[in-house]
Amino acid sequence: MTPLERARLDVEEALRRYRECVAGEEMEYGSEYERVTFMEYEAPAPDPCAEAFSRLLAAVRTYEAAGGSREELDLGSLREPIYDALDRG
Asked: The organism sits in which domain of life (predicted)?
């Protein structure tokens, strides 16, 4: 397996874990999900989904460093937030 192939698999795994995290929080908090995630964003406590998103960004960066292009990745509805975060640095 090439480094690029490994990096792509790492992106897919990080994406899966992030989506599972968000789905778990949506299920746990139901109609309060938006309010709770806003409070997590404002609070100093660790947010597991924010950490999963950070790992996803790191995986995409590694993929690009291995010679891949982010446009080749199937990021779905997360494409724009990921691109925005990557472009901000």
From this structure: Bacteria
